[in-house]
């Protein structure tokens, strides 16, 4: 937790709505509570899944919510806020509860990633910042997971800091990329802040600043004999860079230096052809275990193509396309009202109706269960239920597609086991979240992705994963649709 105050990181209308709710209470209306769900409607990059990230920063944001005297003065100067409301803000803190799906978990459209239950003023204020944080980091974690899957157990490094949309995007993007499965980052600040591995080689400028490429390689190897990856494409990869690298490796051996992590990096040209040629020449010289790494504007599609072409690359430095999620630049998370209290304090479910069926929301306070096959340990489906429903694997459960309810699957007792996904983060305004090390989250996330079938992990046209509604939630939703349509 870094203690940063992001309270004014919000859209202006959140504050004007807060004031309106405040004025209603001052006028004698009972304090209203609300439940909001943060979810998304479509997997990024037409993927079969997403990876949720950003919870730790979101928790830090909530813990440090406070309006300073300077904040209140700024809002007063806009001319839109009453003095008594500004006085109220000076004593503001979050008093509600938040449940969230843990970072690194594989998630799917329409299931709540966070469930906020609080006085409506508080729940309204935090909408924008929560979306900003969760949307960005989930986007990058998902992109990283796709890149790592395409690399098929090779090393993947996040190299995108200089192309990120600002320092925060670079730092938190690196963290999210690690959660998504990357093995390290070039971002030194992220390495220090989150205790994640940092790696890198050298730039073309290092070679160009010397009288010869060979001299540049020799000096670099003398400084970093245990981590010697040489960039070989400054002038001519096969006729200059590679032969000079092999010469340096041979000289290191002759000096009795045990080669540990060593090899070459390719940053341009036909990576498939060059890597295959490089592997042949390195092996002929006796350097069978030399690393061949590549950068050069990589993404998951290019990596998959290069693997299919037999490229001899076993480490990938992925920059621009990863840190910006260039092929899909925004995660479509939304924050929608699911229930409010009425004049006597009873909960009333709410839903949004739309001409677009995908934008019709699920009403009420909800849970999310993940059902796994007992025999294989693989996922079967996710089930969204009302909060008072219990699914435990000991009873027969029937799943059905809420958009095509005739498509049904019945799971027998003992044939499946269950994990409830939403976990408490804040209770009665108190933080109960326990921070985890990024590398531990990364390890758990990798195990989580292994529970998916390969059909769900395909880069193109993956099999859609079922996210179903319980019968009770489905009935509530359909009943509310009928009522709304006949008003």
Quick recap:
With 487 residues, this protein is an alpha/beta fold.
Structure description:
By secondary structure, this protein is α/β, with parallel strands linked by helices. It is built from 17 helices and 21 strands. It has helices at residues 12-26, 55-63, 69-77, 83-90, 120-125, 127-151, 167-179, 188-194, 204-208, 213-223, 237-254, 271-284, 300-308, 320-323, 438-450, 454-457, 471-485, and strands spanning 33-40, 50-51, 97-100, 106-107, 114-119, 155-158, 184-185, 227-231, 261-266, 291-294, 315-318, 333-341, 347-349, 366-373, 379-386, 397-401, 404-411, 416-420, 423-427, 430-431, 467-469. The protein has a seven-stranded antiparallel beta sheet with strand order 13-12-1-5-3-19-20. It has a six-stranded parallel beta sheet with strand order 7-6-11-10-9-8. A four-stranded mixed beta sheet has the order 18-14-15-21. Helix 2 (55-63) packs antiparallel against helix 6 (127-151) and helix 6 (127-151) packs parallel to helix 13.
Cα distance, first to last residue?
Answer: 48 Å
Main beta-sheet annotation? 7 strands, antiparallel
- Number of discrete helical segments: 17
Contiguous runs where pLDDT drops below 50 for at least 5 residues: none
Counted beta strands: 21
Give the SSE layout.
Elements: H1 12-26, E1 33-40, E2 50-51, H2 55-63, H3 69-77, H4 83-90, E3 97-100, E4 106-107, E5 114-119, H5 120-125, H6 127-151, E6 155-158, H7 167-179, E7 184-185, H8 188-194, H9 204-208, H10 213-223, E8 227-231, H11 237-254, E9 261-266, H12 271-284, E10 291-294, H13 300-308, E11 315-318, H14 320-323, E12 333-341, E13 347-349, E14 366-373, E15 379-386, E16 397-401, E17 404-411, E18 416-420, E19 423-427, E20 430-431, H15 438-450, H16 454-457, E21 467-469, H17 471-485
Parallel strand pairs: 6-7, 6-11, 8-9, 9-10, 10-11, 15-21
Antiparallel strand pairs: 1-5, 1-12, 2-4, 3-5, 3-19, 12-13, 14-15, 14-18, 16-17, 19-20
Helix pairs in contact: 2-6, 3-4, 6-7, 6-13, 10-11, 11-12
């Amino acid at each position: 937790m870094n203690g940063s105050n992001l309270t004014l990181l919000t859209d202006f209308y959140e504050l004007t709505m807060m004031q309106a709710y405040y004025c209603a209470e001052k006028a004698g209306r009972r304090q209203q509570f609300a439940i909001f769900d943060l979810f998304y409607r479509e997997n990024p990059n037409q993927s079969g899944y997403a990876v949720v990230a950003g919870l730790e920063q979101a928790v830090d944001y909530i813990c440090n919510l406070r309006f300073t005297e300077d904040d209140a003065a700024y809002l007063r100067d806009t001319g839109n806020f009453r003095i008594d409301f500004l006085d109220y803000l000076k004593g503001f803190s979050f008093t509600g509860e938040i449940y969230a799906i843990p970072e690194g978990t594989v998630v799917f459209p329409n299931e709540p990633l966070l469930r906020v239950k609080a006085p409506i003023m508080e729940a309204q204020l935090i909408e924008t910042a929560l979306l900003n944080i969760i949307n960005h980091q989930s986007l990058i974690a998902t992109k990283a997971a796709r890149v790592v899957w395409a690399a098929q157990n090779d090393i993947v490094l996040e190299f995108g800091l200089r192309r990120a949309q600002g320092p925060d995007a670079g730092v938190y993007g690196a963290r999210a990329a690690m959660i998504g499965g990357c093995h390290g980052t070039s971002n030194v600040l992220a390495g220090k802040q989150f205790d994640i591995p940092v790696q890198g080689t050298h730039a073309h400028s290092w070679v160009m600043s010397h009288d010869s490429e060979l001299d540049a390689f020799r000096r670099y190897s003398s400084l970093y004999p245990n981590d010697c990856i040489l960039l070989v494409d400054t002038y001519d990869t096969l006729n200059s860079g590679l032969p000079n690298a092999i010469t340096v490796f041979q000289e290191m051996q002759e000096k009795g230096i045990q080669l540990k992590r060593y090899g070459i990096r390719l940053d341009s040209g036909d990576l498939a052809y060059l890597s295959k040629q490089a592997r042949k020449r390195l092996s002929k010289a006796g350097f069978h275990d030399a690393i061949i790494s590549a950068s050069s504007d990589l993404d998951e599609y290019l990596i998959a193509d290069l693997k299919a072409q037999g490229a001899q690359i076993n480490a990938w430095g992925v920059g621009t396309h990863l840190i910006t999620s260039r092929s899909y630049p925004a995660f479509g998370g939304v924050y929608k009202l699911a229930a409010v209290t009425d004049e006597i304090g009873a909960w009333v479910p709410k839903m949004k109706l739309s001409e677009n069926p995908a934008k019709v929301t699920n009403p009420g306070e909800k849970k999310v269960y993940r059902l796994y096959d007992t025999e294989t340990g693989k996922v079967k489906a996710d089930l969204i239920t009302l909060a008072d429903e219990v699914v435990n694997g000991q009873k027969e459960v029937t799943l059905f597609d809420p958009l095509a309810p005739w498509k049904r699957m019945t799971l027998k007792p003992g044939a499946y086991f269950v994990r409830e996904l939403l976990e408490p983060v804040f209770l009665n305004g108190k933080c109960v979240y326990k921070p985890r090390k990024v590398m531990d989250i990364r390890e758990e996330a990798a195990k989580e992705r292994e529970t998916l079938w390969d059909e769900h992990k395909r880069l193109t046209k993956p099999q859609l994963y079922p996210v179903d509604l319980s019968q009770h939630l489905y009935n509530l939703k359909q009943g509310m649709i009928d009522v709304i349509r006949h008003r």
